[in-house]
Q: What sequence folds into this?
């Protein structure tokens, strides 16, 4: 998944980026509202982590504008305010959840997973198709009771494809979803990850199909 973290505290931001990156997520960091708006105008994110007190304004104004533009990307607010009225106000503005600073990273990770599950309309992480079980939380594919643990980019690529079956994803689009602005990556890397996933999916009813000149799509039975 590709996340956007809007946070001006550099130490906290780097800690969050490093922790979520260990889970295989791509995390772009915006230290202020202007940078966040620039990122969201050019890139599709799966989740936004939003601080409230920012150098160039109030994060709530960003959230309000975000929803006014009919942007449905889920938002978790990071706030030092613990009053019920503040939390209710942020939810009314369109926040999907909030977490109060200081927070435990395991709680942040759990809230991210919960929000993403709700967005997908699912109460569970596992996707079961025929003899295939794909568990994004565990990072595994199980086919006929044989389990393979996916590497981070393999996992995130399969999440992207499973998120929109039969949709064609171009190589540039997949690079955008899997890598941050700070990473200089060739589109050939996508071919490598697709090849690995095809081997992992061998023997299941799920296939990654190449659409010549356009990209790849996940084909389901």
A:
């Amino acid at each position: 998944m590709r996340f956007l973290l809007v946070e001006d505290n550099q130490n906290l931001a780097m800690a969050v980026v490093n922790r979520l990156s260990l889970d295989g997520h791509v995390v772009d960091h915006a230290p202020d509202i202007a940078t966040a708006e620039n990122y969201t105008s050019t890139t599709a994110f799966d989740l936004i982590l939003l601080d409230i007190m920012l150098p160039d304004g109030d994060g709530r104004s960003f959230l309000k504008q975000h929803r006014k533009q009919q942007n449905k990307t889920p938002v978790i607010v990071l706030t030092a305010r613990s009053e019920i009225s503040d939390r209710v106000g942020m939810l009314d503005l369109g926040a999907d959840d909030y977490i109060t600073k200081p927070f435990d990273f395991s709680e942040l990770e759990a809230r991210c997973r919960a929000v993403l599950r709700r967005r997908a309309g699912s109460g569970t992480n596992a996707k079961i198709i025929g003899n295939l079980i794909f568990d994004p939380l565990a990072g595994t594919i199980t086919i006929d009771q044989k389990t393979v643990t996916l590497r981070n980019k393999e996992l995130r690529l399969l999440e992207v494809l499973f998120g929109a079956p039969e949709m064609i994803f171009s190589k540039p689009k997949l690079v955008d979803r899997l890598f941050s602005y700070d990473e200089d990556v060739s589109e050939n890397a996508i071919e490598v990850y697709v090849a690995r996933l095809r081997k992992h999916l061998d023997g299941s009813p799920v296939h990654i199909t190449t659409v010549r000149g356009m990209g790849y799509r996940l084909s389901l039975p």
About this structure: Residues 2-120 form a domain with the Rossmann fold fold (CATH 3.40.50.2300). The radius of gyration is 18 Å.
